[in-house]
Design a protein that fits this description.
Rossmann fold; four-stranded antiparallel beta sheet; 9 helices; binds adenosine-5'-triphosphate; ABC transporter ATP-binding protein; ATP binding; antibiotic resistance
Length: 261
């Protein structure tokens, strides 16, 4: 019997409630180190809430989260030094240029200035932002914002990278660039955890998948085990219980025989 790889992230009985809404309901999850992990689930499943709690941005009501064995909420400084985060709806310092943003992030993390400059140059070049390094972040497009956010998350070479929908609103060329950077990062034995709605992308990139529904994990494991002999798309629809008849009651929609009503 082979021993399983150590956990990069271990979540035990995690709960989060917003008023009447239970967003995360007793979630338990183990994400192996050195894996490329896809977190999938329908809208409102609790992915962003979970990632926010795992990365120390949102305090859980209950439960425990360990990143490489360190408790996120008991020892946040140590954990935050080891992780990189690209949150959803990333808020950035809009009046800094892309390069200044990276320099600021690097200095905040205590890195020497010369090393920050060297890495910032390389990241800007690899992410096709070299020509936009002096442009204000406020003037960046959606895809450029994702890329500079990714650069900021990678700058200190974290052990684990958390990305909330990194490909949302990104064109195919930029998506390819981001994919290349993430693959290169994962090949070094680091761990990537990203949420996405694009099953094809998760299938292409990930070797491990966790499927969430209604605040809980309904499947987790190696990609091949979770999808079985189906596509991930099909497995996902079956796991979260797709409703084929959802639109049937919209009998007023379409067909205007006697003119529009
Ligand atoms: N700050 C908040 N206040 C109130 N309810 C919230 C808040 N944040 C999340 N929720 C609710 O918690 C549930 C889970 O939301 P969450 O954003 O975590 O889901 P998600 O899986 O990331 O969804 P999506 O795929 O649409 O981004 C939803 O019902 C949402 O309305």
């Amino acid at each position: 019997m082979t021993t399983p790889p150590p956990a990069a992230v271990e979540i035990q009985d995690l709960w989060k409630r917003f008023g009447q809404q239970i967003a995360v309901a007793g979630l338990t999850l183990r994400l192996p180190s050195g894996s490329f992990i896809g977190l999938v689930g329908p809208n409102g499943a609790g992915k962003t809430t979970t990632l926010s709690m795992v990365t120390g941005l949102l305090r859980p009501d209950h439960g425990r989260i360990l990143v490489h064995g360190t408790d996120v909420w008991q020892d946040p400084v140590e954990v935050k030094a080891r992780i990189g985060v690209l949150p959803e709806g990333l808020r950035m310092f809009e009046r800094l240029s892309g390069r200044e943003l990276l320099q600021y992030n690097g200095r905040l993390r205590g890195m020497p200035g010369a090393e920050v400059d060297r890495r910032a140059d390389e990241l800007l070049r690899v992410l096709d932002l070299a020509g936009a390094g002096a442009k204000l972040v406020a003037d960046y497009s959606t895809g450029m914002r994702k890329k500079i956010g990714l650069a900021a998350a990678l700058l200190h070479n974290p052990d684990v990278l958390f990305l909330d929908e990194p490909f949302e609103g990104v064109d195919p060329v930029s998506a390819q660039t981001i994919r290349g950077v993430l693959k290169r990062y994962a090949e070094t034995g680091s761990t990537v955890v990203f949420s996405s709605h694009v099953m094809e992308l998760v299938e292409q990139l990930c070797d491990w998948v966790a499927v969430m529904n209604a605040g809980q994990v309904v499947a987790q494991g190696p990609l091949d085990t979770v999808r079985g002999d189906r596509s991930l798309h099909q497995a996902f629809l079956e796991l979260v219980g797709v409703r084929d008849d959802a639109a049937a009651s919209l009998d007023w929609l379409g067909a205007h025989p006697g003119g529009a009503q």
